Amino acid sequence: MRPVFRKLSALLSVAFLLVLSGCSEQYLVLDPKGPIASAQKDLILITALICAVIAIPVFAITAVIVWRYRDRPNRKASYKPEWEHSTKLELTWWGIPIIAIAILAIVTVNYTYKLEPSVAIESEKEPIEIQVTSLDWKWLFTYPEQGIATVNYFKMPVDTPVRFKLTSDMTMNSFWIPNLGGQLYTMSGMAMTLHLMADEEGSYYGSGANFTGLHFAQMTFTADVTSQDEFDAWVNEVKTTEEELTEAGVEQLKMKGSHQVAQYSSFPDNLFYDIMLQYVEEGETGAHAHHMSSEDSGQDASSEHNH
C-alpha cells in the first residue's frame, strides 16, 4: 500500500502548489470591464449563492449528525428502531432542492436570453466591426470599415459596441476576453457573431480557450481599449506607416507556428469571407451566402434589444 500513499501524497502536493500559485493571479472573470462581463459575473454569484443555500445546511447537518449519533458511553440520543418516515423531513430534503432548481432554471433562462451573443448591445453609438480569424497558432484581426489588419493585438474605442465576426482558417478555437465577457467558438465555414463593449479604458488579456495543439499556450492577444480620438489616431498611424498585408503574407500567416504582434495598413478585399468559405464545395456557397445575408439583415432589428 505504500506506493499508493506515495502517489496520493505527490498528487496532493502538486494540487496544493497549483492552488497557491493561482492565489496571486487576478480573477479576470470576476473583474468585469463591460456590461456583458458584469452580467456574467452576476449570474456566477447568483448561482453560487443558490447552491450555497443548499450545500452549507447539508454540510452543517452532516456534521451535527456525525457528532450527535457517534458511538460513545452514556449516549443520550433517542433510539427508534421502528422509525421509517417523517413527512416534515421528506418535505425538507425534497422541497428545498426542487425550489432551488426551479429558481436556477428561471435565472439561467433569463440570462441565456439576455446574454445571447448575436444580439446587439443597445447604445447611442454605432457599433464598429472587427473580423476575427483564428489561425494555427495566432489571431488575425481585420477592420473592414477602417481597412487595416493586426495580428495578436487590436484596439477598440471605449463605450462603443463592437460586433465581432468570428471564423477559423482550419482548427476550431474559442475567442475569449475574460474582462469583457464572451467566449465564442471560431469554426471553419461559419461566421459567428459576438457583441461586446468596454466601459473602462485599459489593456485586457485575451486568448484561445480551446486546446489546439503544440503552441496553444502562445495563442494569446491584447485588447486595448482607448478613447475614440486615440483609436482614430491609431488607425491613421497604421494606415500611413505600416506595410500592407498581401496575399503572400496571408498564406504565410496560415502556416502553422506562433507569430509576434503585427499591424498592416491594408489587407486583401473580402479576406475574412474568403477564408471562411475556402473549404465550401461548389454548390454550397448559396446556402452560406443566405445565412450571412439573413444574419446581417437581422442586426438592425436585434439592435433594439438589450444584450
From TrEMBL:
Provide a Gene Ontology MF annotation, just one.
Answer: cytochrome-c oxidase activity
How the protein sits in the membrane?
A: Multi-pass membrane protein
Q: Which residues belong to any copy of the Cytochrome oxidase subunit II copper A binding domain? A: 125-237
Q: Which GO terms describe its biological process?
A: ATP synthesis coupled electron transport
Q: Tell whether Signal is among the UniProt keywords.
A: yes
The keyword Oxidoreductase is assigned to this record: yes
E.C. designation(s): 1.10.3.-
Identify the keywords attached in UniProt to this record, alphabetized: Cell membrane, Electron transport, Membrane, Oxidoreductase, Respiratory chain, Signal, Transmembrane, Transmembrane helix, Transport
Mind telling me which residue stretches traverse the membrane in this protein?
A: 43-70, 91-113
**Pfam families xrefs:** COX2
Cellular localization per UniProt: Cell membrane
Stated name of the protein: Quinol oxidase subunit 2
* Gene that encodes the chain: cyoA
